[in-house]
Amino acid sequence: MNQEAIWDFFQNEGVASFGESYGRLRFLTNKFTKKERVLNIGVGAGFFEQLAKEKGIDIYCIDPSEKAIDKLRITIGDERAIVGYSQDMKFPDCYFDGVVMSEVLEHLDSDVIERTLKEVKRILKPQGVFIGTVPFNENLSEYQVVCPCCSEKFHRWGHLQSFTFEKFGSLFSVAGLNVELKLKLFTTWKSLNWKGKLSAFVNSVFFKIGFKKSGLNIYFEATKSQIK
User: Which range of residues forms the domain containing residue 51?
Assistant: First the structure.
């Protein structure tokens, strides 16, 4: 599976697929205050960068897609929108007040995740925070498709990982990060018609009474461990 080809398509030609991410990204943006220096890893449609700039956050971003980054350079500046990879970032040590990865880690293999978390720890300030989301306990086979040209089977969005609380939390422990995990249901109400809003309301009720349905996210908030 050519992971970068999938990312490049959705971030440039298939941006409509990010329409339901607005509520989630606004929630994450509100975790930071004006003038804090924040890095977003994996830009999607660029919604987080737009929201962060509106709030006065000193926003940076990094992504492998040159096309996606080129568009964001117009929004946040050439020096703040960087083409690159999460496991090998060129930023100085202790540079950011916050780092964000929302719906990204599930796209990475285990080795890249381990290296990414170590890089995030390196570039975070001592009191910095690393936040983001991943799908909760996703059944990867439900979204498996087959290429009509080569017959290779792959996840339609390029997901390689399915996370439970236990599996996800252990990754941070190995990297020397203290992490708190919460189960969240994000809804972008303004993008829904009345039927969608009714369905979302019912889902929110089930979520509040403890019913774990599909479409939930693990929200994580991590800080540097005091023990190196």
Answer: 3-224
